[in-house]
Please model this.
Amino acid sequence: MADDPFENMLAQMDRAEEYAEVDHGIFERLKHPERTLKVTLPVKLESGGVEVFEGYRCQFDSARGPFKGGVRYHPSVTQREVEALAGWMTWKAALVDLPYGGAKGGVICEPKELTDRDLERLTRRYTEGIRRMIGPETDVPAPDMNTNPQTMAWMMDTYSMYEGYTVPKVVTGKPLEIGGTPGRVEATGRGVSIITERLFEYLERDLTEATVAVQGFGNVGANAARLLDDAGARVVAASDVTGGAYDPEGLDVPTLATHVDAGGLMEEYTAGVVRGVSDDRTRWDEAGHIDNETLLSLDVDVLIPAAVEGVITAHNVDDIRASAVVEAANGPTTVAADEILTERDVQVVPDILANTGGVIVSYLEWVQNSQEFSWPLQTVNAELERRIGSAFDETIARYDDGDVPDLRTAAYTIALERTASAHEYRGLFP
Ligand code: GLU
Model:
């Protein structure tokens, strides 16, 4: 099951069904994506040859509004994974009460082996492939793993070329110059940080006394680490695909983030070969090298998986020593592991709540594009905090007064009820 994220998502839904007031027929309907398009993408690479890539766009459910969800570029992308991620988008949009359904896209590729020009061609070809599905009122892509504002700019341009006029609203996560919003790049990490602070308030624990380990140091993990460091938490470990850095005294997060931002690897940071980034070299020497599996088992207060799905499983759950897990990644915990963490009273803030900062600010970007008006960063951040905070409060209220076993089940119960209610009001066509 750990290998199949879609099965894992269905098992999470099943776990919540007995607590959710949802008609069984509608519940069954919610287990099936509306549609998935598979596209073949021949691309002439800068190296001369033609490579044929494969991509997908899954539209999971649109009862609550236009489809919404990112596009990921990764060698391990599969149709099932994209469908699971589209399901998770549906539940997170419902939980934070955005007027959206859920979707996801993915292209099987290794971006590290492609040049910028290759990536541009691949992105434009993929956009052409899914162009009949997407649109500012139908399905709005955004960045996900290995895609970024530049990718969104190419998607927006390609779509606009076919339409004959500029359509900023067709994607979110754009560069500021072409209709992006301030605060979108760091939004998911900011949401993770806000949620961790709220969790500590709820548990009546002091975040400034807490130690944190972050698995994954991409856009989400790095920003979450930076903001938690700002909030006074001690980030003792972080990792990327090359391995991790560990320092019980706390990592120098700003230096590490600057290093990784400049294209550096975690491996180099721990090996102490980073040059000219900071005057404080002592931390680099003290920082030990650990692998990703060891990072997961560190004795810390908060573990933040911010990389791929299926990293906390029945096989390693007994090694997890953190007292709280905040899921910055989508689907990092399998249901089998979840049940054990619940039994052990480890608080797990589920992905469909913890990582919603990105889609919330995507929504704010889309609204600004609709209004042809732009908001300052403070307005965006305040609105993000208000929306994610109220979803947190609602989830906690459900957890506190119901008999649901854990926060994930509480969150799913709310999301499923909201989506099912939209289906009930709309009825079945024809
Ligand atoms: N890819 C992000 C996620 O998984 C953001 C999606 C969006 O902004 O539409 O939530």
